[in-house]
Amino acid sequence: MSDIQQIFALIFWTSLLLLFHNYIGTCLSLMVVSAFRKRTDSDAPIPAEDLPTVTILVPAHNEEEVIGEKVENLLEQDYPSDLMEIVVASDVSTDHTVEIVNSFSDRGVKLIDYRERHGKLGIIDELIPQLNGEIVVITDANVILAKDALRRMMEKYSDPLVGTVGGDLKTVLPSGGERLRRETTYRQFENHIKRLMSRFGAQIGLFGGFYSLRRSLFRPLGRRPVQDDVILPLEVLAQGYKAVYAENAASIEETQRTIKAEYLRRVRMTTYNLNSISKLLWLAFRSGVKVLYLAVSYKLLRWFAPYLLALMLISSAMMIGSSWLYNVIAALFGLCILLAGIGGLRVKSGGKSGITTDLFHFAVMNFAVFVGIGFWIKGARKYWETRSL
Fold first, then answer.
1. How many of the other CB atoms lie within 10 Å of CB of 174?
2. How far, in Å, are 142, 163, 213, 234 from residue 201 at the CA level?
3. Which of 315, 360, 354, 364 has its CA nearest to residue 336?
4. Which conformational region is residue 221 in: left (phi greater than 0), alpha (psi within -120 to 50 degrees), or beta?
5. Which of 41, 139, 144, 211 is the most exposed place for a label (fewest CB within 10 A)?
6. Coil, strand, or helix at residue 286?
7. Closest by alpha carbon to 138, among 78, 87, 191?
8. Residue 210, C-beta contacts closer than 8 angstroms, at least 6 positions apart
9. How are beta strands 143-145 and 242-254 bridged, if at all?
10. Coil, helix or strand for 62?
């Protein structure tokens, strides 16, 4: 093996080790430590008089297909109406979102009708300091909550040290979305890790479609677009409070209807992820060793996973001929690329789902991360515009 091939071998095994630690090692370390840790949190019901006041904030941009069902869903929550306020912020909607929300005004639903785009992040920064509830719940228009979800989430705040609580997400496939079934499996795995982190009061990254925090602990996200469901919980942790997971606060969200739609979502996520890195590290450092370990091992390495996979692909190709092991590894990478290409043709022709279409979906989602770098360099806005792909 030549000197340059030895360098590529080091790159390959380092990348593999980091990927293993992110997907397997972090989970195993949490499971081992939690096995020796007595569980202290409780999901026991609390009296109505002890429940906190809540403001539910729903950012919405052209959500006419789902906003009516969403508001009805919130109004039907098993929570005292005198302790609950619903605010829908329409972000320059050009469809019938405003009219639909206004039809609920006689039931106490408040509408903020923006005339200039703010995006979800701008809405959060501007509105949360003005809201009335002790607890602010941020939820997306396309997320439907179980009838007792809000109460279950609020029960976590019976612990005065809990500063932010994430809800539970179950993803369902939309009609015609069979090729995205691996996305639901991935999210189930994510939920399992969230449960483990919650036992330590240090959940890194909440489900952005349904989470909450004490309004007094809110700190503005700032002008730079970041992942609100990662940075806001870290702001709470940095103030010495807990970030936990309400496993019984159930919600349902449809996955994207097509691979293209999911691809665009991943591109957007990448731009915000890259913007979030410096703030994530600073807040995690301020929060202590435990949080810093989880922030790097779980979240940061997850953001870098596609780049590590690309390094493995390139380095294995550069080591062809150095040994049978690297020849086999390179051949396996090549086979996966070939099968992903076949899967792309099957998707285009309307063929059934299978291993090839799963590999195509995996390849497209990883490619989206690299496309997102270009959007990040151009400069991400607080509201998403696809510009040109």
1. 13
2. 28, 10, 14, 11
3. 360
4. alpha
5. 41
6. helix
7. 87
8. 137, 138, 139, 140, 143, 145, 149, 166, 167, 169, 249, 251
9. antiparallel
10. coil
Instruction: Kindly state the tokens that stand for 272.
Output: 């915000």
Contact 320, 327 (CB under 8 A): yes
How many CA atoms does the CB half-sphere of 68 hold within 13 Å? 7
Q: Which two tokens stand for residue 318?
A: 């550069």
| Eight-state DSSP code of residue 311 | H
Cα dihedral 337, 339, 343, 344 sign: positive
Burial 112-142 (b: 16+ CB within 10 A, else e): bebeeebbbbbbbbebbeebebbbbbbbbbb
- Determine whether 23 is exposed, middle or buried from the number of CB atoms within 10 Å of its CB (0-12, 13-18, 19+): middle
The full set of domains in the chain, from first to last, is 1-38+258-389 (no CATH), 48-257 (3.90.550.10)
Closest alpha carbon to 371 in 279, 228, 261, 269 = 269
d(CA 16, CA 254): 32
Tokens 């919980």 appear where? 233
How far is the C-alpha of 291 from the C-alpha of 201, rounded, in Å? 9
Q: Hey, what are 101's tokens?
A: 């929300």
pLDDT tens string 261-274: 777 878 888 888 99
Q: What is the pLDDT of residues 131-190, one digit of tens each?
A: 999 999 999 999 999 999 999 999 999 999 999 999 998 877 665 444 445 555 566 777
